[in-house]
Design a protein that fits this description.
Radius of gyration: 19 Å
Strand content: 15-25%
Shape: globular
Largest sheet: 4 strands, parallel
Structural class: alpha/beta
Number of helices: 5
Order of helices and strands: EEEHHEHEHHE
Length: 171
């Protein structure tokens, strides 16, 4: 054996199975379609998992759900960044909310999933400082190749005026 070789099999441990981690290429708009950085058409096959980020922040094991989504053919999950009516998910109640966004995106990427992050939902109730929240979310996710930012879920119902926001750079 060479230094660094796996020796677990010698003492009865199971053999290591190395799996390949999918490489997610940045997606962009090409005319009327999505394409990856090589120009290949990317077909949006998503699942809505509104509270997935909340569950991640609370330390729940979200990996089984990610595996299920991939097995069903999904390449993206759509996740709310806040909610009031389906559950009380208020960003201001999670001290690591912004710090954990990139780690969450990385976890999704490990399973070959892109991430549609819905920044605002139920903002008329939750009332985070809008510009600061949007900028902090965009800053945390900037440069992640698997991230799509959605400003607001059902904006006319959520107290958000899209005209008050500019398109984030680098997303």
């Amino acid at each position: 054996l060479d230094p660094g070789d796996y020796e677990g099999g010698l003492i009865g441990l199971p053999d290591l199975i190395y799996s390949t981690v999918p490489v997610l290429k940045p997606i962009h708009i090409d005319g009327t379609r999505f394409a990856d950085s090589d120009g290949n058409i990317w077909i949006w096959k998503g699942c809505t998992d509104f509270l997935l980020y909340k569950h991640f922040l609370e330390g729940r094991d979200v990996v089984p759900l990610l595996k299920e989504r991939v097995e069903l053919g999904a390449n993206l999950v759509r996740v709310l960044g806040m909610a009031h009516y389906i559950d009380h998910f208020y960003p201001q109640r999670y001290h690591a909310y912004y710090d954990e966004l990139a780690g969450f995106a990385n976890l999704l990427a490990l399973y070959g999933l892109s991430f549609e992050f819905v920044t605002f939902a139920d903002q008329q109730i939750i009332q985070v400082p809008e510009q600061a929240h949007f900028i902090d979310c965009c800053t945390a996710l900037r440069g992640m190749p698997n991230v799509f930012i959605e400003l607001c879920n059902e904006y006319p119902k959520n107290g958000i005026d899209p005209r008050h926001f500019t398109r984030p750079v680098g997303l």
